[in-house]
UniProtKB/TrEMBL annotation:
Protein name: LAMA1 protein
Gene3D superfamilies assigned to the protein according to its UniProt record, in alphabetical order: 2.60.120.200
UniProt-listed InterPro entries: ConA-like_dom_sf, Laminin_G, Neurexin-related_CASP
Domain Laminin G: 38-218
Lineage: Eukaryota, Metazoa, Chordata, Craniata, Vertebrata
Amino acid sequence: VTHSIAACIGSLMINSKQLDNESPVSIFAVNTCYVTVQDGTFFDGSGFAALVREGYKVRSDVNITLEFRTTAMHGVLLGVSSAKVDAIGLEIVNGKVLFHVNNGAGRITATYEPRGTNSLCDGKWHKLQANKTKHRISLIIDGHLVQTDNPYIQSTSADTNNPIYVGGYPADVKQNCLTSKSSFRGCLRNLMLTKGQQAELFDFSRAFDLRGVFPHSCPGAEH
């Protein structure tokens, strides 16, 4: 076994002596235990998860689905970029969800604006679906569809070759379709990217870089 356990461990005794886990000599990727826990991955607002080290190719079509829960009004959800301008990005800005796509000719954005100012940032689970089909993009939040016109109809492929960054991204990494630098604070689950008939469900514990992200356990409420 080469990966850590997603669990809480307490009252650890060695030779009848209880170990003091309040002041460890060193600590890495260990968080507090929650009184109530839910399925999902907890992002503490300081980092990100990096998936697909060899680079994810969006190209003409991709459908992204995920569920999120947050009380913060800002935060990066997902970004895939290239060294050029081609990129896609999902983010929460001022309580709105923005889906940006640049197929090389210019950035277009679908914006979902909830009726209540903080109704998406209420600590409850919300379902998101972002779809790019050639030059068309759409965003569905909790069943509400938003579409936007794209003046660049000749440009259909986002030629990305960088990893998928979720919940934030490193300071030295360029993201051409994200306006926010704020890391996401809250919980994500059921991240799936679908191309044609091929659906891929991403397990955050298999990310090649995790900072401030705790897979498979989500506090039942903000602690």
